[in-house]
Amino acid sequence: MSFPLSRGRRLRKSESIRRMVAETKVTADDLIAPLFVMEGKNKKEQIPSLPGYHCFTPDLLVKEANFFYRNGIKCILLFAKIPGNKKDNAGKEAVNPKGLMQTTVKAIKNAVPELCVMTDVALDPYSEFGHDGIVKGKEIDNDSTIKVLAEMSVSHAQAGADFVAPSDMMDGRVLKIREALEQSNFHHTGIMSYSAKYASGFYGPFRDALDSAPAFGDKKTYQMDFANAREAIREAQADVEEGADIVMVKPALPYLDVIAKVKEAVNVPVAAYSVSGEYAMVKAAAKNGWMDEDKAIIEILTGIKRAGADLIATYFAYDFLRLKK
Ligand code: PBG
After folding, report:
1. Cβ(126) to ligand 1 under 6 A?
2. What distance in angstroms lies between residue 128's CA and the mean position of ligand 1's atoms?
3. Distance from the Cα of residue 21 to its chain's centroid
4. What is the pLDDT of residues 220-234, one digit of tens each?
């Protein structure tokens, strides 16, 4: 049909009509709120490069978790900030059943049992080298690392985690984790795998938050090259075969094509992680008066969902709730 039988503007005429024909709507059900926990009591620290975002001690973090649940965001993704004196090259603290992550998960599940709690599984916050695996010479050793990640995952499941979320990009870790969970009778603990996680310049604020920047080199021998999209499909398919329940693409905004391709290729839910740098960019521009952040936030989240993401992990979780009021 061509003009004037068809006029695209008829369906854009009013807010009511635009809403009727909107193909994509982001709701609180789509969102996962990342949260950072640190040791101590009754304290919160502003993360300088993530304006409006804080690291909380467990008692206060439980309140944040509850806030999200009460307001309709039913899932959090938990990261632990580990003090320097507990970092090593073995992940000892990562597998400690009484560690910060494990005790915090227990406290959250006690207070808000219905909240879906996902835990980060990777060694970088626990590593004296800031790498996601065990360092041997100048290499990140794959096969010794995935054993520790499996043990770490079981300790999170024991604490009550609903999902473990391996963010390390070691080969074969999903299978190793799935086998370990099955052996320990955690048949219903989910795995949300960071399947296509890119070596990205957008992780800076996160590494500030956890004090986890790599002490040498970079993460390019394990995280993916941003030039590649077909490789993301291979990674996602491998993770599904190894037992992942949800696959994730990360970052989100510069990888919308990857989200769309992965969505076509697999039949499990696809998550996207809109990372710290994506959030910081918007906040910095807004602070300068260069952009209307409220408009940008909804547009970004809608774009990520439109690309194919079923779930979006995002630091905009607070803003989203504010805007939806
Ligand atoms: C590391 C990890 C990173 C993020 C989540 N898990 C950073 C990295 O790979 O160095 C980044 C998240 C963000 O930037 O918001 N396992």
Report:
1. no
2. 16
3. 31
4. 999 999 999 999 999
SS3 289: coil
The token pair that represents 256 in the structure block: 């919308």
Q: How many residues does the chain have?
A: 325
**Which pLDDT score is estimated for 325?**
76
276 lines ligand 1 (CB under 6 A): yes
* CA 312 to mean position of chain CA atoms: 8
Query: CA angle at residue 24 from 12 to 114, to 5 degrees?
Result: 145
Query: Angle at CA 289, nearest 5°, toward 283 and 292?
Result: 65
How far apart CA 265 and CA 233 sit, in angstroms, is: 7
What's the CA gap between 94 and 11, in Å, rounded?
54
What would the pLDDT profile of 245-269 be if each residue is shown by its tens digit?
A: 999 999 999 999 999 999 999 999 9
Instruction: Please identify, by atom number, the ligand 1 atom nearest to the C-alpha of residue 277.
Output: 14
Query: How many whole angstroms separate alpha carbon 273 and alpha carbon 254?
Result: 11
**Per-residue DSSP letters for 194-208?**
EEEEB--TT-HHHHH
| Pocket-testing residue among 121, 206, 226, 248, ligand 1, by greatest number of atoms within 8 A of Cβ | 206
pTM above 0.85, yes or no: yes
The Cα angle at residue 223 between residues 221 and 226, in degrees rounded to 5 = 110
pLDDT band with cut points at 50, 70 and 90 for residue 25? very high
